[in-house]
Queue: 2 jobs
Job 1
Amino acid sequence: MAVSQDLLEILRCPYCVSGETRKPGDDPGRLELVGDGTWLVCQESDCGRKYPIREDIPVMLIEEGDKWINTPAEGLPEPGPLVQ
């Protein structure tokens, strides 16, 4: 089961929509599904955070997105299980 289109339409990068780090505009932090549906990548040009989808659950923690900020989308690994 993949992340539903309805969920994708409302999910946003938590860094880009939060308090002091909120990006300008009406709808900041839009995400794109990549890696065979296993990653969500922020579309803000100066963000670069990537959030894994583990066992069909998007892990939308800023700290998780920070881990992958310098990894190109095509270099992202399989996210692995939700609980290790």
Job 2
Amino acid sequence: MTQAAQKAIIAFDVDGTLTESKQAIQPDMSALLCKLLLKKRVALISGASLVRFQAQLLDLLQCVVGGGDEIDNLTLLPTNGSGCYQYDRETRKWALIDEMPLSPEIKEKVLVAFKRIIADP
């Protein structure tokens, strides 16, 4: 059995892996991703928003557009994984199932660290 066959879920970064940075997915990659979704759970992560996912990928994946069974194997992790979305067949929309935004305290620490790094010659 190959290593890929043993994996329960396969995760991809979108930009630079499935697509050129911030560009629409190409038809050949779309077809490959749909084939993979027939066999495995797939997680897609990006720094982009869910709206960007829609335009860059979801509107172009025929298996997703057609509402095939493949869509049940797809998990979206936009905004660097701070939100987790699954397709809800009842509402026919992507539903937020988990969210982990940065707390104000962590945001402040990150900003202070960035400012310190940028100011250091």
